[in-house]
From TrEMBL, chains A, B:
SMART domains linked to this entry: HTH_LACI (SM00354)
Compositional bias per record (Low complexity), positions renumbered to this chain: 330-353
Manganese listed as a keyword: no
Record lineage: Bacteria, Bacillati, Actinomycetota, Actinomycetes, Micromonosporales
Protein name: LacI family DNA-binding transcriptional regulator
Region (Disordered) residue spans: 328-353
InterPro entries per the UniProt record, alphabetical: HTH_LacI, LacI/GalR-like_sensor, Lambda_DNA-bd_dom_sf, Peripla_BP_I
Entry GO MF terms: DNA binding
PANTHER family the record matches: LACI-RELATED TRANSCRIPTIONAL REPRESSOR, LACTOSE OPERON REPRESSOR
Domain of life: Bacteria
HTH lacI-type domain: residues covered: 7-61
Pfam families in alphabetical order: LacI, Peripla_BP_3
Keyword Isomerase attributed: no
């Protein structure tokens, strides 16, 4: 290896046959590393003349006292609430929050390309968005800690709900009430079509229907961009079906609010003519009397902050993983009207009176 | 003066008989300072052996490339949206955003006391909150630029709506529709009772009624903490009056959403039995069919960011000041029902049927 080529931690990890995280822990004298592994990493470091870089040394001391927080949206309630919880914990620990809004693919690229060169944070917290493979390598090469909240990021400490379980709570509630013709309003992230939050919520719907012995009808699933107005449009689409559903499961409360607006404008009663269930327990859900699956959003930000503090102190992250959701039954769901079942498709259709 | 006492800009300003801001501008060769004033400041600096401090020198160069953004709330839509607009401009200019949530008086004290010692930002942007006198001195002693958005902070470049004008648009709309018995739901900041946003909105109500020749009835004004549930409670209180109003003006949309929930639960029709108007044009306002006074929230954050960039570049802040609001008429307001005027107080009361 030429003398002026800087050896980085990725080289050491590769040589030792361990992950970046393990190499990082071994080199920073982290207690939870097997002795054999630590010896292997140290040997690799010696062979490569690896010098602990300023960035890597921050692992122990937190030299910058700054944490980068990366969010795909600032003004949406879910992300702002995660951020509020996280910021409170970091501020208490006297760490500064550097906020980075990465709204689209170009922003993401820019953020991940420039951050290492700047060497200005001890850790990165990723809120409600995925971290791609190349981006992970970049972060790891900096030797900074990485924590995710509001979504699971493979290979990193995270705190998140189980989207599939949350979706099941919503759809099972509709099935329990007797609905047999259930629509779904799914949402897409225009910039992040691969983000697994929505696939989990969609899978829950398919599995719940299959277990109930109900057929999958593609027409009952409408996929729209996230937001209230798209939710309203999606409900219009469902109402225009030859045989509309008797209940609708929306992937988020804000989408459900839009769906409810369409129902009110169509002169339909909620839940007599149509039940609606969401996910989140947005502050407006109580006011809108929306049945929903509540997730503790601020708490996820707090838990991520605490995990990060433990990591920065050289310990193991605790209190992360999957947090529980719970069904909150309000006035927007009820049993289907008699005569509204699909067995009587000649009966008056809810959307057409 | 003892040799080891560091002379600061406040000493220079005092000696020269000018404000901190003027002293700062004079010392940084800002073009908009009268020659006589500049000469006086330079003479004072020389007499005091004032050395331009690292902080003061940042005025020109922006040495840290970081901007502190101070917000009283993160998760509320208004503040998160301001922040989103501001962050976009600062990020484009390659400035980092350090986010500080100052939720209560202790947080505020902590922030303003510690920031100067840390010397880590080129500027401070204050979003939607006041800056007290002692705090201003502290910021000025750092030699950092200060900009306010979402509210007017005396003595600093700001961008904000005119709260009194916005309130007039709301109340005048109700008067134009023929309402003569108008309630108001005002809100308080528990931690910032002196923040002038709400006084402006309250003054608008009193002035509009006075100009219309209507008496001020204290019972028609309910003051609650900010939020949807308090808004719902406030409407319950108005409905319990011997003679309820026929229309209600809420200081913000989120409060109005709560008020509308109470009306729906009471079986009252909006607007036939009660008109409701808010301020903001929250994203949910369209879905809730709420008449409101729209303010451009994200744009205020963007404008504040641009003002700050101009200041950091040594120029004059442009594009700030008061931004226009506009009435957005939706389905929540209409003329009062015949027979609901106060002249016929023996008629059936909306809240009691």
């Amino acid at each position: 290896m030429p003398p002026h080529t800087r050896v980085n931690m990725a080289d050491v990890a590769r040589r030792a046959g361990v992950s970046m995280a393990t190499a990082s822990r071994a080199l920073s004298n982290h207690p939870h590393v097997a002795e054999e592994t630590r010896a292997r990493v140290l040997a690799a470091a010696e062979q490569l003349s690896y010098v602990v870089s300023p960035e890597a040394s921050r692992l122990a001391g937190g030299a910058t006292d700054r944490v980068a927080v990366v969010v795909p949206h600032i003004s949406r309630w879910f992300f702002a609430t995660l951020l509020e919880g996280l910021e409170a914990v970091l501020r208490d620990a006297d760490l500064d929050v550097l906020l980075y809004h990465v709204g689209d693919a170009a922003d993401r690229r820019d953020f991940f390309q420039r951050l290492p060169a700047r060497r200005k944070v001890d850790a990165v917290v990723v809120l409600g968005m995925p971290v791609m493979h190349g981006e992970r390598e970049r972060l790891e090469s900096m030797g900074v800690h990485i924590v995710a909240a509001g979504g699971q990021v493979e290979h990193y400490p995270y705190v998140s709900i189980d989207d599939a379980a949350a979706g099941r709570q919503a759809v099972d509630h509709l099935l329990f009430l007797g609905h047999r013709r259930i629509g779904m309003i799914a949402t897409v992230e225009p910039t992040e079509p691969g983000w697994p939050a929505n696939p989990g919520r969609a899978r829950a719907y398919r599995e719940a229907l299959a277990e109930a012995g109900l057929p999958a009808e593609p027409g009952l699933v409408v996929t729209v961009p996230w937001g209230g107005v798209p939710g309203a449009d999606a409900m219009s689409q469902l109402l225009s079906l030859r045989e509309p559903p008797t209940a609708v499961y929306a992937h988020s409360d804000e989408v459900a609010f839009g769906a409810m607006r369409t129902l009110r404008r169509a002169g339909l009663r909620i839940p007599e003519d149509m039940s609606v269930v969401g996910i989140d327990d947005h502050p407006m859900a109580e006011l809108a009397d929306l049945t929903t699956v509540a997730q503790p959003v601020r708490d996820q930000g707090v838990a991520a902050g605490r995990m990060l503090l433990a990591l920065l102190a050289g310990g193991e992250p605790e209190g992360g993983g999957t947090v529980a959701t719970r069904l909150v039954v309000r006035g927007s769901t009820g049993p289907p009207r008699p005569g509204s079942s699909r067995a009587r498709s000649s009966s008056p259709r809810p959307g057409r009176r």
